[in-house]
């Protein structure tokens, strides 16, 4: 990669600002590595799009995702982390120092890079879904549920996210149709229990969304297919939420870092080290199994400790 000019050299560059990125920053800052965090487009990451976080240790009464991320940022800054809004557009990990370009203009070189770019919501891939995206279609109940107050909505998915979002929507909306493609949930028992105990959620098993219906401007319904008897029907809804999982944000590293077949970065066993020395990965971008805020924070800590050891070894000429 050609750099027009050297703007800045840092010891530790952290890409991403979810629990993994900020935890890495807290540890790196306390180790005097003067980390720089580039937040990405969604500062705070996926947790800023969720409501209550009840399973993060240390918050007996729960905490909202946005508040938790704000506090993590403050904690990272307290020890000297420089948190900057910016999106990494290019990386070059071929040299002894790693080169990273931000927003197509700013250029940084770094001794160590910690990748914590997380994952992004998946879509069904229907044409009508994209047509009405933002006009009744959403992949974030917490962000957009408010717009459907006292209205009837549908949500696709059967995992923990869908279950959580369905119960969230049920508090705001008159009725929530939950479209489950198999005859069972993937979500944990506790979450399924919560869904089943919410009177205004109707679960439609063996049901797929075939088309989002609209008047050309906004969503007016969804055509669903029963994949057991092939029957179709229309549900009258004004909101359509997609909660079918996520894909890792790794396009930037294609052909550069080792990935599995679904795009998750591969790290060495019991480590956050990637195939490139000095480049570490933590959080959801390298974890398709646990994907929890606490596990992301845990691997963020690991990444910072490993970056510190890498730097120390490099400086002592090992
Ligand atoms: P998951 O991958 O767990 O679930 C995705 C769901 O979407 C599955 O039920 C899947 O169906 C369904 N699905 C996928 N593609 C389609 C499609 N094209 N049409 C219809 N349905 C589809 O993703 P989640 O985002 O729910 O959860 C990710 C991880 O985060 C999990 O490990 C989860 O436990 C965790 N999580 C934990 C929370 C908590 O503890 N509070 C909250 C939210 C998430 P099928 O089952 O048939 O494959």
From TrEMBL:
Protein name: Thioredoxin reductase
Pfam families: Pyr_redox_2 (PF07992)
Signal peptide (from-to): none
Record organism: Sphingobacterium thalpophilum
Reactions that this protein is recorded to catalyse: [thioredoxin]-dithiol + NADP(+) = [thioredoxin]-disulfide + NADPH + H(+)
Cofactor(s) recorded in Swiss-Prot or TrEMBL: FAD
Quaternary structure and partners: Homodimer.
Residue span, FAD/NAD(P)-binding domain: 11-300
Keywords: FAD, Flavoprotein, Oxidoreductase, Redox-active center
Similarity section: Belongs to the class-II pyridine nucleotide-disulfide oxidoreductase family.
InterPro entries to which the protein is assigned, alphabetical: FAD/NAD-bd_sf, FAD/NAD-binding_dom, Ferredoxin-NADP_redctase_2, Thioredox_Rdtase
EC number in record: 1.8.1.9
GO terms for MF: thioredoxin-disulfide reductase (NADPH) activity
Record bears the keyword Repeat: no
GO biological process, alphabetically ordered: removal of superoxide radicals
